[in-house]
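Bump. Still looking for Acylneuraminate cytidylyltransferase family protein structure tokens.
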Amino acid sequence: MYKDKKILAIIPARGGSKGIPYKNIMDICGKPLIAYTIEAAKKSKYIDYTMVSTDDSKIKEVSLKHKASVPFLRPEQISNDSAKSIDVVIHGINFLSEKGECFDYVILLQPTSPLRNCNDIDNAIEVLMNSKEDSLISVCEVDENPAIMRTIKDNRLEPIIEFTGDNLRRQELPKVYIFNGALYINKVRMLLEEKNFFNEKTLPYIMKREKSVDIDSMLDAKLVELILKENSDD
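Sorry for the wait, here they are.
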């Protein structure tokens, strides 16, 4: 709880994964991937309830072992390849509401972002709840600026965006950011009314690129393991 507001953390973890089978519980430095996110949420000073939303009994078992709540197995209609994260979160909110558990804010924590820690979570909560806005999404700066990117049309190079500078020296380009997938924080009211994590007033929470790795491939997993091992040696 922060400023008398109850905060729910939802960790979405379906069993199906085409790229890496059972990615959400794959071994990362001797621990299942989802455990890093569960532990970060449990260590938060402000999160009141940490819930894993999964359709898979094996993921449920691992999540319970690491002290997350798993009050249901997610229905199939929000567990397939076309399922949207917003539907998963709203389903979790409504399920708990029907059980008499109501929250003011919800934070979506994807298990594929294991380098995000409890300090990131708590700092982001403070940033949002000390503002007048309803939502916050974590971002990181991108290396490849779209100002220097080109598409090919009629066998000619064309800019993706128009840049009015005299040259394209990297140092003079405007900074550009991308959602890194680590943190989505919203007022519950906003999610239920707008059915969207993002609107024109959403705040950014800037994270370092080395904490923003989102595991989508085995190469990403190896990079995360390297970073975790280096951090453990500090």
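Residues 61 and 70 are 9 Å apart (CA to CA).

Edit: fixed formatting.
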